[in-house]
Design a protein that fits this description.
- The chain starts with a strand and ends with a helix.
- It is flat, with a radius of gyration of 33 Å.
- The protein has a 5-stranded parallel beta sheet, sandwiched between helices.
- Helix 10 runs antiparallel to helix 11, helix 13 crosses helix 15 and helix 15 runs parallel beside helix 18.
- The chain has 4 domains: 138 residues, Rossmann fold, CATH 3.40.50.2300; 166 residues, Reverse transcriptase/Diguanylate cyclase domain (Alpha-Beta Plaits); 98 residues; 91 residues, Homeodomain-like (Arc Repressor Mutant, subunit A, Orthogonal Bundle).
- The longest helix has 38 residues.
- The chain is built from 24 helices and 10 strands.
- By secondary structure, the chain is an alpha/beta fold.
Amino acid sequence: MNLLLVDDDAYVLEAVKNTLDWKQLQIENVYTAQSVRNAKKIILDVPIHLVVSDIEMPRENGLELISWIRQQDLVIKDILLTSYAEFEYARQAVKLGCFAYTLKPIDYGELEELLRKAAAAEQEELERLDYRKYYDHWNQTEKSRKESFFRGLMLEQQIPGQKDLEAALERYMLRYEDSVRFVVAVCQLYDYEWAYNDLGMGMLVWSMKNVLEELFDTPDTHVECVLSHTESSCIVVIKTMGGDALYKIGEKGKNLIENITRHFRSNCCFAVGNVCRILQIQESFADVAQMLDHCADGEGQVVMQQDFVYKEADYQPPNWQIWESLMQESSSIMPVVNEYLDNLVKRKSANTEILSRFTLDFAHTFRLAYQKEGISTEELEEAGYRIHNLKDAIHSVKECKIFIEKMVGEAARLLNEKQQSNSVVEKVKRFIDENPDQEITRESLAEKVYLNPDYLARIFKKEVGEPIGVYLANQRIRLAKEYLEKTEEPVNLISIKAGYDNFSYFSKMFKNMVGMSPKEYRSQFRK
């Protein structure tokens, strides 16, 4: 489900967004708006299921937003927030059929429960309506019809010829004269981790679409549609109105890069295809995608197809045997990685195929180097893929450097932790071995090595292969066996010396672990 938070206070939006457990509430995307105007725009663009809105806002208020939602005949469950216990607010909320009404300051536990109930009610109503009414609103808009048409034309290859084109235009109720020309462009994001974490994928994509539409809707150009292509890229189809439109699109592309850097703290490459007819759009998109593949050093640039020169390049791997010996130190390996990648750029050989082969070879050699130090493939892959997605690393030289640097840093951290945990575990084992007769608990051991008891138990079992309690019991029984073999002391006294105050418990443990009672063991040993 998708949820929209509406409040003119950015701090409230941030607090709600970062406090609630959206995954547990089964909410996939959280959108935010600081005005009713922006909220309406999001609702018209994106299927929204739940709205949480403040009432008191400048210009239009939350009650007016709910009234507008009812006029659109949308299936949305709404929760209103207010700082004032005004009877008139409550009366209007009831009149509008608002799902819930609650007071600020926000009780997050209460809000979470209201959202859980609202989501269940929304799901029930959608199932009752068989989803048709819910989606009709978006399917009937011209914007949605254009998106479906161009997606079929470019990505799904559903319109191979003139007859198919005419049928598709009729089906989507669209009309384009033969004289109309188009430009296909792709905006490829780089280093967008901050924007993704701050906005969420749904809000990031929506914001990107709005930036593209605002920039390229000019007297000479009109945005026909913006399509999400991958997690990090959007396709924009621009209808051109004038002869120098391509130049103006390139200039606007520079503004786009500035906007993305300023507002999203990210970077991008804006790849622009040549002017084409409608049936050439599929081919033009393929050309732009190929151009991006051959432009792994294009971050922060506008790349025009009309000026782009393709250069074939062969993959020349480094000496991996030498590199393997450098891989355990970031200060040793990163200079040679940077030099290798910078040379690719100088030779104009930086494309996605070469970066992909290099990155995969590096990861393979890297795993071999760290496996020799006791770090498993699973641990390395988990660390590597958690910090950065491999598919993003092959789109630009900078992203490739970031990916490798983070992978090396994460692996070095794992190795350091392993070495420290080995040292800690050895210290704990040595104490148990030397003092099995003392009163020993997991907590007392943790205090000696300044660790959390649960964490100590976890690393001990991982390194030794058995829990602390089992290891301690084995050492105590080992000590008891030595006393039984070498002395004539009574069994009950041996029990105490082996760390067991309870003789019955000692006898039971001994028999379970040795297969016979302490007396039987002494008798058998002396035969």
